[in-house]
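Issue: copy button drops trailing tokens. Both records pasted manually instead:
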Amino acid sequence: MGLTGAGAPAGAGPGSRGEHAGTVAAPLPAHRDPWEEQVLADPHLLADIAYAVGGPFHMMYPARVVENIHGFQRIFAAAGVSGAVFYGKKANKAACVARACATAGAGVDVSSTGELVAALAQGVRGADLLVTGPEKADELHWLAARHGCLIAVDSLGELKRLSALDIPVRILLRVLPAASASRFGMSADELGRAVTAAADHPSITLQGFSFHLSGYDPVPRAELAVQLLDRIQAARAQGHPATTISVGGGFGVDYVPAEHWSAFRDEANRRWFHSGKAFESYYPYSFPDPGPAMLAAILERDDLARRLRQTGTTLAVEPGRALLDRAGSTVFRVQGHKTRHEHGQPYRVLTVDGSSLSLSEQWFDSEYLPDPVLWPTAAGTPTPTVVGAATCLESDMLSWRRIPLPRAAETGDLLLYPNTAGYQMDSNESPFHELPIPPKVVLSQAPGGRFRWALDRS
């Protein structure tokens, strides 16, 4: 989650530029793909799924995941760089995503035995798995080594435990970036000792180095990758193959048009939110160079692509959210509604048949901002609307913002939150109140161009 950027933070109180901008929030319509337009235009599909499931559900369209993976692969090919794409599995547990990775030639980044086994079950080979995380459990080490996975080692102690397995293991050494306060990775001194220690253990093969940076700026990623090329060369001088640098994740997603995001940031104020709610920061929902375009910017910076080619080094990336862009949505049914007034203006309060635990941004003291779509789509009177959950918690709101829905929502309508596959569906879900966790519904094209659906196998 990132700050809104330059200017006053969204949610600023009295005195902000938007203080007198009214009580209805600026619209933030999400970008839509043709498959999403087709779903919304179908007169029966959403209603049929909702009837069969009997509660809220997540829709997944794995063909879009394949398309996103190919986007990163095309950038590597255009730059003439050897590249590897690993999907960060924590972003979404759906089995169909891991299957899409196997289909598209991408690996999967896993951090637990459960994630590792789930990826294998969907056809991802052990050699295409990258195992990350701090001080990994012995069982995870053993299983990863047995399947020939690439393991990102976080400490000297972890390296020692791996060498004690006496099983051939391929590793990356995770780097602690300079001036970083992160608890992950190794300092320059620790890296030097780890490279030397790895040379002393015939079972350890040092494949290279990895790092992760917060934020979405391509410049520091390129700069650190260039610096690590010197470490690659030094490791090779000590007899290691050292073929790979992983720059981690943090590839931005462009959720909404730039002009809408700019208007929101300029004008947002407490009057736009139920009960005067305020947030300090938001994910940057408009991103100028998302996903593959950000990879291109990294490769262009500091002549990185040429240096990778000259040294025969593979650049690995570990996107999670960016590989799920426009690959899924979350659907709730309206259970009821009421009218409230603030600042002398009426707005509608909806209660839907689920929880904000299925829209995880709300649990990081922030708001998921792309506008939900009211279905069936029909003309009506624009109605400012907030959305609450079917729980007894005052704070359990899916949308605090007074969203300008195109008509008044009624009981039985469906509310579709777009582009939720990246972290929103899985990060915080819980059967609170013994409400069932929404299932994932997988869409695929049937003969004749219509959609058919099935429950995900996760």
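Record 2 (pasted manually too):
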Amino acid sequence: MNILLAFKAEPDSGMLAEKDWLAATQDTCGPDTALLRSSPGADEQAAAALLLAERRAGCEMVLTALNIGDERSLHWLRYFSALGFDKTVLLENGADLRFAPAFIAGQIADWHYRHGADLIITGCQSSEGQNGQTPFLLAEMLGWPCFSQVTRFALEAPFISVDQRMESGLRRCRVRLPAVIAVRQCGEVALPVPGMRQRLAAAKAEIIRQPVDIVVPQGRNCLALTRPEQRRRAKIIDGATAQEKARILWRDYLRQRCAP
């Protein structure tokens, strides 16, 4: 069974200092994240952990990790190789892909047409664009069913069982492959940590690098940044004495919350 994990390496904006955010308010370029360390989103890490758990359970599979981006993704491709992924692929493109789900879905579909996959797994949405459209567009291009908000799945070739976290509760489906699923991290699984021997072996592992010729139209600029006002909600109790303040506190706040 050929399984493709498509992930996105995102810069950690939480590492930016306050002065960087303040400087970004002076123009329309937004904060510079070029030097920040990138990492897969929580959804993609959960998907990789679930795949590796299925392999440990005895399911035979060929795992491929694919990323569209620049050289900052090489570290994580080697990381997935150290965890046991059989192939790692970097589709090189230096354009701003935060708001280009159709372009990303098209590149994943092209890879599938050339190499084949029985199951394609993505995250539900990235922390940057947060559009959540890529898996649905990909499934539409391929003519496959798509399942989002997946918290767990089990492979039983040629079927897959998925658990979806819906507003009405948990839904369990069993469908025939091929399919596209979008995993949602719910804090139940964590990405394993490879050992030193696996890391050293992965440092020499081959990473398939292919340039992407199509250029995504630019022109998406930051219009404005506004710093939210962080103020605690509080009410000052006025009273002549401490006893009077205590009575006001009881009458206006505590009594309503203690009532059965």
